[in-house]
Amino acid sequence: MAIELGKIGIWRHYAQVDAGFAAEAEKLGYGAIWLGGSPGGDLAYVDDLLAATDSLVVATGIVNIWQDEPADIAKAYERITGKYPDRFLLGVGAGHREATKEYKKPYAALVDYLDGLDAAGVPVSGRALAALGPKVVKLSADRTAGAHPYLVTPEHTRDAREILGAGKLLAPEHKVVLETDAEKARAIGRKTVKFYLGLSNYTANLRKLGFTDEDLAGEGSDRLVDALTLHGDAETVARGLSAHFEAGADHVNVQVLNEDPWPAYRALAAELL
């Protein structure tokens, strides 16, 4: 694909990313910023991030198909890529049923949305699909540049690569806490992980990965939190992230959960970039 994401990217809520953040990320060597939190509308903030950088790619992680019509998102895509070719990747997905009143038959809705993007001229190479289950991973291979799985482990990455085959983007997200005290790290990680334990699409995927009802109960077992939130010093965390590459990932986007993320981003850049 023409868009060069690099090896490591940053996943962060779009409201927490500004031009200064993007410029610093690029300076450290990160290839992309993935904007979480269902960014949508005219995506005007993407222009600001790209204007502040020279080569950084901005990706949406993800535009929620229930919130914006494909024709409207296609207009934003055309505007952004017209000014900044090969530096924007449109990530789309169905979100989760508990947060979306209109949520029904998500697979069919995804197909319809991709049809709408086709009709509006958004190229396959310029879009990616949030994908957990094998059916949607296969859809991402057939209809987009590839898959952007969220809240996954290297085991999921290995399975997803088998479905995607060679030549398709696989860009999983993984949470990290730069903290060598395991209890402190788990407390930080658990604050984020526990939210997803009430969402059926994530819990179903975690069960497929071998986690039990006991792991998923309450705020999550230590085993679950440790798997979904890497912690330790920079070398230890970098080794955990590298397991995704060994399993077949092309690009890993890192979500730092420390209150101040920059020490982790800088330390990981020194280890991985």
Automatic annotation (TrEMBL):
One of the record's GO molecular function terms: oxidoreductase activity, acting on paired donors, with incorporation or reduction of molecular oxygen
Cellular component GO terms held in the UniProt record: cytosol
Domain Luciferase-like: 21-116
InterPro entries: Bact_Lucif_Oxidored, Lucif-like_OxRdatse_MSMEG_4141, Luciferase-like_dom, Luciferase-like_sf
PANTHER family: CONSERVED PROTEIN, LUCIFERASE-LIKE MONOOXYGENASE
Protein name per Swiss-Prot or TrEMBL: Coenzyme F420-dependent N5
Source species: Amycolatopsis camponoti
Lineage, top ranks: Bacteria, Bacillati, Actinomycetota, Actinomycetes, Pseudonocardiales
